[in-house]
Structure formats: C-alpha cells, structure tokens
Amino acid sequence: MRAHLWSPCAVFLAGALLAGCTPISLQMAIKQNDLNAVKEFVEGGSSLASLGSFKRTPLIAAAYYQSPAIVEYLLTREVDVNAQDTKGATALTYSAFYGDKRSAELLVQAKAALDVKDKKGCTALMYAAYYGHLPIVRLLINQGADTKVTDSKGIDLLNLAAQAKQNAVVEYLEKVKSE
C-alpha cells in the first residue's frame, strides 16, 4: 500500500475547501505572509470578520504573524482596527508584543486605540515594555498611550519593565516620568 505524501498545507487547504471554509484559507495565506494570495481572497469576497478558533480577524492575524505588508493592505479595506480576539488582544497588542514596529506605526496612523486592555489587563504599551521593544514604547508614548496604566494585578508599567530586566525601557520610562 502506497502512502500519499501530502504537505500539511495541502491537507489543511483541501479540508478547508471541502468544508466550504474559504476564510481559513485566507488565514493560511496570512500565516504564510503571502500578500498576493491575501489580495485574491479579499478581492474575491472573503470575510474580513473573525476567523479560526481564537476569533482573530485577518488584521489581527496579520499582526500576530508579523506581516506588515498585509497589515498595510488590510488597512486599505473596511476593517475594525480595534477588533479584539478571544484573548482581548488587538492587532496593535500583537504588534507591540512581537516588536513589529512597522505594523505598530501603520496601526497607530490608522487611529488604533492605544490603551485597549486584554483579558490580563495589559495594553500594547505594557507588552512592548515587558519584552523590551523600546522603539514601540517610544512610539506609543509619543502618541499619547497611558503611562500610568496597571495590569489586572496592579503592576504598573515601570515595575513590569523592571521585573523583565528591560533596563533600556526602564531608563526611558524613568526619564518620561520625570518630565
């Protein structure tokens, strides 16, 4: 008996097509950072609403997979820049979490809300500070993000960065605090 050698993508896409589930194919195109395929799906009428088990919109998925070109394209469409997935995260949250400065800049230009809290009570600024993404910390603060924010445990921004040993971020936050 000969085994069929199908790539994981082919199996996934075949299953999605058989189930009539084109949006999952859109999600795969985003995951693979395939802007041309994303354009084909979107221009072919694929929904820009939530997809998959985490209810991530294509814009959130593009930020999650660190695909600034896809973020930029999707922002030219009618998308909710402040949509939240099941974790309460927005596209800006994921851009800050992963340190994707270009996507964060695009989302800020598109008027993404800066101080949306996820289910842990954390904002994009808090994730950028915790993971040491100083350029994004600067961007968000310069755009007016709340620097007095605390998470669901009451930990403030400066202490969050200090706990993560993000010394450059701590120095910057102390400077901002003293101004």
Question: Separation of termini?
Answer: 74 Å
- Provide the residue-averaged pLDDT: 87
Quickly name the level 1 CATH class: Mainly Alpha
Oligomer: single chain
Q: How many β-strand runs?
A: 0
C-alpha geometry? elongated
By DSSP (H or I, 4+ residues per run), the number of helices equals: 11
- Structural class, judged by helices and strands? mainly alpha
What is the architecture at the second tier of CATH?
Answer: Alpha Horseshoe
Characterise this structure.
- By secondary structure, the protein is mostly helical.
- The protein has a single domain (17-178), classed as Ankyrin repeat-containing domain (Serine Threonine Protein Phosphatase 5, Tetratricopeptide repeat, Alpha Horseshoe), CATH 1.25.40.
- Helices cover 54% and strands 0% of the residues.
- The protein has helices at residues 8-18, 22-31, 35-43, 58-64, 68-74, 91-98, 101-109, 124-130, 134-142, 157-163, 167-178.
- The chain is elongated.
